[in-house]
Amino acid sequence: MTHFLERAVDYRFVDVSLLNTALTHRSHSSPHNERLEFLGDSVLDAVIAQQLYERFPRMSEGDMSRLRANLVRQDSLHQLALSLSLGEHLRLGEGELKSGGASRPSILADALEAVFGAVWLDGGFDGASRVIVRLYEGMFAGIVPGKPAKDAKTCLQEYLQGKRLPLPKYVLAATDGKAHAQLFTIVCEVDSLRITAEGQGSSRRAAEQIAAERALEKLQVHG
Fold it and tell me: What domains can you pick out in the chain, each with its CATH number?
C-alpha cells in the first residue's frame, strides 16, 4: 500500500518507516504522525511562500500572505489528500475507523502534512519541495495576479446577484462523529437554477465553502 502512495506523490522513500509513521493516527498506535505533522506544516509554509515569491515577482507581501493562508488551509489540504486517496492508506484505531475517520477532513489534512514532514526528513527540503510543488501545480496555475482572492461562498453570491437571482441556501444535512471531531455535511441549494451541491468539512463554515465550490463547478458546466 505504501508503494502505491509513493507513486501517487512521485517520491520513493529511503526510510519507508517514516511514511508508515506519517500514515499512523494517534488512535492506532505509537509512534504516530503528530510530530511529523508539525514538521510538515512548517515546510509547507516555506515552500508555498518561496513559490509565490518566485512566480509572482510583483505581488505584494499582503497578497502573498493571503494566498499562502488560502493554499495551506485545511480545505485545500483535504482536497489534495482526496486526490491521492490518502484515506485508504491511513492506520486508524477501531473507533476512528467506525466513525469515518478515514474521510474526516481534519485527519486527512493532518496526515498529508505529516507526509510532507516525512519526505523532508527522508529527502531534505528539495525532496519535500518537489512533492509539494507537483501537488499544488494546479492551484498555482489558477492564481491570477492582481485579482483579489475570494472564497467560494462570496463568488457564488456575487454570481447570483449579478444575474439578479435569489441567494443560495445552505442546509445542514448531517452531523457525524463525536463533539471534538465532528464532520458536517452541508447542501448548497440554488433553487432558481435547480442546482444542489454537497460539501463536507470539520466545521459548518468549511462544509459550506466546499458545497459552494461544487455549486460553482456545476454552474460552469451548466453554461
Answer: 2-141 (1.10.1520.10), 152-222 (3.30.160.20)
Decide if 113 is catalytic.
Answer: yes
Helix (H, G, I), strand (E, B) or coil at 170: strand
Write down the pTM of the prediction. 0.69
Q: Which of 106, 110, 102 is nearest to 44 (CA)?
A: 110
Q: Cβ(156)–Cβ(168) under 8 Å? A: yes
Q: How far apart are CA 13 and CA 36, in angstroms?
A: 15
DSSP state of 10: T
DSSP states of 82-111: HHTTGGGG-B--HHHHHTTGGG-HHHHHHH
Helix, strand, coil percentages, rounded to 5, for the chain: 65, 10, 25
Q: Before 31, cis peptide (omega within 30)?
A: yes
Would residue 41 show up in a list of annotated catalytic residues for this protein?
yes
pLDDT per residue as tens digits for the range 75-107: 889 888 988 889 999 999 998 888 888 888 889
Per-residue pLDDT reduced to its tens digit, 3-22: 788 988 899 999 999 999 99
Single out the catalytic residue among 41, 96, 110, 213: 41
Task: Give the active site residue among 37, 63, 110, 113.
Answer: 113
3-class secondary-structure state, position 142: coil
| Contact status, residue 219 vs residue 159, Cβ threshold 8 Å | yes
DSSP 181: G
117: amino acid identity, one letter: G
Nearest CA to 177 among 91, 105, 101, 108? Answer: 101
